[in-house]
Amino acid sequence: MLNTHTSGLEEKLKRAEDAANEVHRLESLASQAPLLRAEMAKAQRQAERDANRKNAIERAKRAIIAAAKKQGEVPATLETVSKMVYSLYQTLKEIDNHRKEAAQAMAIVDRMDYEEELESGGEEQQELGRDPKSIEFLVASRHGQARIKQLLDQMDPDFSYLRGCEVEEPLRRDVANFILAHVISPAKSPRENPNGPGPRQNP
Q1: What is the pLDDT of residue 196?
Q2: In the prediction, which pLDDT does 11 show?
Q3: Are 107 and 148 within 8 A, CB to CB?
Q4: Which residue has the higher pLDDT, 195 or 183?
Q5: pLDDT on residue 105
Q6: How many CB atoms lie within 10 A of CB 115?
Q7: Which of 67, 122, 153, 155 could cross-link 132 (Cys pair, CB 3.0–4.6 Å)?
Q8: How many other C-beta atoms can be found within 10 angstroms of the C-beta atom of residue 188?
Q9: Does residue 1 have a pLDDT over 60?
Q10: Residues 6+ apart with CB under 8 A from 177
């Protein structure tokens, strides 16, 4: 009877010790959970970074290849654009030369008018017993560059270097202004003097 009882106790003790060992093992494993979770999160973040880095490098390679391929079109396109720009420059330059020629001709007209008005006015002053030179300043103020421009405007009142051109689009407008800046005097930009420069004439 004693042996049976002792044997039962030994069996229970063995099961209890096994359970205690398992609990100890599980407690030890459970204590590692926070560290394992942190390491897992770190590994996931690193894996995500590596994947993003790899994808970004692949996109960059494709973009670089595409840019290099497109860049190969630049020389021919630049050559074409340069020829067109030069053609536009030449056309605007011819317009400017013609306007200057017209201004020079109108300067002669203005000079003749000035001399005629001065002579006529001088005669009137003499008849009134006054010094004919007294009206020189008055007559001169009605002639010169301003009147030359007025005479040109009367001949072509709607003149503009870019008349008939669509320049609302900013890039097109910038290109036109850039070329015009090389055609006309830098002191007279297209916005300041859309009718173009003319030679200064002092009567």
Answers
A1: 38
A2: 76
A3: yes
A4: 183
A5: 95
A6: 13
A7: 122
A8: 16
A9: no
A10: 189, 190, 191
This prediction has a pTM of 0.61
End-to-end CA distance of the chain: 150
Q: Compute, in degrees rounded to 10, the torsion defined by CA atoms 33, 39, 41, 42.
A: 170
Question: Which residue, among 168, 38, 184, has the nearest Cα to 98 in the 3D structure?
Answer: 184
One DSSP character per residue, 58-71 reads: HHHHHHHHHHHHHH
Cβ proximity of 114 and 202 under 8 Å:
no
d(CA 184, CA 199): 12
Q: What is the pLDDT of residue 187?
A: 47
Scanning the structure block, which residue is given the tokens 């229970």?
A: 12
> CA–CA separation, 120 vs 110, rounded Å?
15
DSSP state of 133: G
| Model confidence band, residue 122 (pLDDT cutoffs 50, 70, 90) | low
